[in-house]
Specification:
This protein starts with 10 loop residues before the first strand and ends with a helix. It has eight helices and 19 strands. It is about 25% helix and about 25% strand. The strands form five sheets. Strands 1, 2, 5, 6, 7, 8 and 19 form a seven-stranded mixed β-sheet that branches. The chain has a five-stranded parallel β-sheet with strand order 10-17-11-12-13. A three-stranded antiparallel β-sheet has the order 14-15-16. It has about 350 residues and is of the alpha/beta class. The chain has two domains: about 200 residues, 3-Layer(bba) Sandwich (FAD/NAD(P)-binding domain), CATH 3.50.50; about 130 residues, FAD/NAD(P)-binding domain (3-Layer(bba) Sandwich), CATH 3.50.50. The structure holds flavin-adenine dinucleotide. The site of flavin-adenine dinucleotide has 44 residues, from α1, α4 and α8. This is Thioredoxin-disulfide reductase.
Length: about 350
């Protein structure tokens, strides 16, 4: 924790949960509005973009920009205007009373008048050997982001739901061949998406198969992958129970995980904040029916992937980060006016 950060004493105007691109964008806007935001960096300082090398679709960088560089620049920019960063991870939030109270994993407590939740959604990982080393180096969780790096490659997509079909169809525009690796013989995907993938001449399926290990290096990228198969499906589980399984190492230039994302919202359990069945936050519309970033709890705003199961891009996360800060600023102004009026009426 930043030694100068006194997380217990004052009531903050705004605390931002998360230091991914959504949290950073919110921090720049909130700091420029003199709200002196405190940014809790959480378990993954800098967020998902720190897992990738080149970002080629973020506006303003014609040659692309490194994920780390983009994040470090964002942090520097926010600090320049007075945002404060600390390594806190929120474990519990009490939102029924004002100011809101947050409990951090180290036991510290924080009080704040407004809150921006920008805690992201983590892509699920398979658990294959070497995935930590090769994530961002030929292994990815985002075809829209990294597909274009795989022109002419043979690639694998791991998963059997709609998002795996979507990733495969997108990758088929660039790759020589796309193989969907699924641990069962039946897809979870909707019929229409499954048919589209099945009908595509460059997409193949490996049924009853799982990814066991990735091979390659950060210099070369992913070069091959070991697949494990069993005629009754769930081969890794079968192998762990001592069954005979087939193993094959195939040459590939890229591997994409498409087994879903988990929004980081467990710390909001038990609060009045509305979430969908997967845990993504709902935000409300204003009186004119237009989208805002405010959640179902007044004064709590959401930005980035944590409220967006559909787009999940750096630029959309940054966009909603700025919106959340602007909504927060307006909320605090209204709160201040209400408090002043209450004071005038009953000093
Ligand atoms: C390998 C990879 C490559 C990608 N490439 C691209 C690309 O080229 N272009 C593109 O547009 N997008 C890309 N993306 C997607 C992009 O990274 C995400 O859309 C973006 O990072 C979402 O930003 P976010 O701030 O909403 O969430 P995140 O980046 O996920 O950040 C979440 C933050 O919340 C913090 N946090 C979580 N829980 C808590 C808690 N309890 N308390 C406090 N803090 C918490 C985390 O520590 C983290 O700092 C890529 C993603 C991956 C994984």
């Amino acid at each position: 924790m930043n030694e100068e950060t006194d997380t217990t004493a004052d009531v903050r105007d705004v605390v931002i949960i998360g230091s991914g691109i959504a949290g950073l964008s919110a921090a720049v806007y909130a700091a420029r509005a003199d709200l002196e935001p405190l940014v809790l960096e959480g378990p993954e300082p800098g967020g998902q973009l720190t897992l990738t090398t080149d970002v080629e679709n973020y506006l303003g960088f014609p040659e692309g920009v490194g994920g780390m560089e983009l994040i470090q620049n964002g942090k520097d920019q926010a600090e320049r205007f007075g945002a404060e960063f600390t390594h806190g991870t929120v474990e519990n939030a009490t939102l029924e009373e004002r100011p809101f109270e947050l409990e951090l994993s180290n036991g510290d407590r924080l009080r704040t008048r407004a809150l921006i939740v920008a805690s992201g959604a983590s892509a699920r990982w398979v658990g294959a050997e070497n995935e930590d080393e090769l994530m961002g180096y030929g292994l990815s969780t985002c075809a829209t982001c990294d597909g274009a790096f795989h022109r002419g490659d043979d690639v694998l997509v791991i998963g059997g739901g709609d998002s795996a079909m979507e990733e495969a169809l997108f990758l088929a525009k660039f790759a020589d061949s796309v193989t969907i690796v699924h641990r069962r013989e039946e897809l979870r995907a909707s019929e229409i998406m499954a048919d589209r993938a099945r009908d595509h001449e460059d997409i193949e399926f490996r049924w009853n198969t799982e990814l066991e290990a990735l091979h390659g290096s950060q210099e070369e990228g992913v070069t091959s992958a070991t697949l494990v198969s069993h005629p009754d499906g769930y081969p890794s589980e079968k192998a762990a129970n001592g069954a005979d399984v087939d193993r094959e190492t195939v040459e590939v230039g890229g591997v994409f995980y498409a087994i879903g994302h988990t929004p980081n919202t467990e710390f909001l359990e038990g609060t009045a904040i509305d979430r969908d069945e997967r845990g993504y936050l709902y935000t409300r519309t204003d009186d004119a029916g237009r989208a805002t970033t405010e959640t179902m709890v007044e004064g709590v705003f959401a930005a980035g992937d944590v409220a967006d199961p559909n787009y999940q891009q750096a630029i959309t996360a940054a966009g909603t980060g700025s919106m959340a800060a602007l909504d927060t600023e307006a909320y605090l102004e209204t709160l201040e006016r209400t408090e002043e009026t209450a004071y005038e009426v009953s000093p």
